[in-house]
Amino acid sequence: MGTTSNYSWPYPESTDPVADGAVDIQALADAADTTGRAIQLATVQVFADATARNTALSGIEIEGMFAFLQDTDALTYWDGSAWQEFSAGADDVIAQYVAIGGGGSGGSNYGGGGGAGGYISSVGTENSGGGRSTMPRATFVRGQSYTITIGAGGASNADGSPTDFASFRALGGGRGGVSPSDGRDGASGGGAPGEGSSSRFGGSAIGGGFQGYYGGNNYPQGGVAPAGGGGGAGGAGDNASSGQAGDGGVGVDSSITGSSVGRGGGGAGGRYSAAAGTATDGGGLANNPGTANTGGGGGGTIGTSGTSYSGGSGVVIIRFLTSDGSPTIGAGLTSSSSTDGDYTVIQFTAGSDTISWSV
Q1: Cα 207 from chain centroid?
Q2: Cα–Cα distance measured from residue 105 to residue 154, given in angstroms and rounded to the nearest whole number
Q3: 25 is in which domain, residue-wise?
Q4: Which residues contact 21 (CB under 8 A, 6 or more apart)?
């Protein structure tokens, strides 16, 4: 039997008699249990979140112990009195985030549903409609300023505006199609207009679906003219069918604020005399705007009123350890702050300005 060089644990060697294997393994387990929780000190333990970590390790923490949190992808360590987040730059602030661009408006005159604003996030997608890559977490260097600009929802047959967050950009959604034009391309494409007997098509998702999905097509059947649904951040807008306008694409659920919320839904397709589509996750129903601060697409119009319903404005949400301190937020930004366990959550809902942490 040999022994390790660090904790002098015994271990079986290939030259040991086979019959001694069980005894050797028991000796290893006994040694590991009596050397100051050496196994826990020598490994990175994995927990679902900070609550699970604290429950499992309460009262047995040892300075230098590491634990990885799956919900925030954070590596933490016990400094002798509290858990701290580890980073290559010890003074940097590491934040999780969700950033969403403004949704496109719905199309007027039984137009297509608006496409959702682009959805980028470091916390991944949490519903079956998702599937885009998770972005890296944001790193804020103390003493430096970072710009945040919240994208407006598209109004009056217009695309949504992008949301900028430090070096990241969530694109605006494409507007719903207005006869005789197809749905517009965007982070998520706008739905096709309900145009009589002519086939029209939903807009494409810029970037191949990285921030959203394409809009649905119309159903060409004369005067009924059902339109396609707008694409959502988590799924494509539905194509229209006989007598039925397309539903808006689904959004994405995130628990970054501490509770699960769906955002980035596409707008419902409009219609002339067919049944209107449905929408969810901030997307607007027919004759309704998208919900503010979700990036939801606006709903298409019922009938020929000429009215276009706006897309929902975008949002930026960041989540960081409260122990990192409070940032300075420029007066041009509208924001609100809350706490969730060891974390502070800030939601930016309008405007443009900078954020920074002091040295």
Answers
A1: 17
A2: 5
A3: 2-85
A4: 12
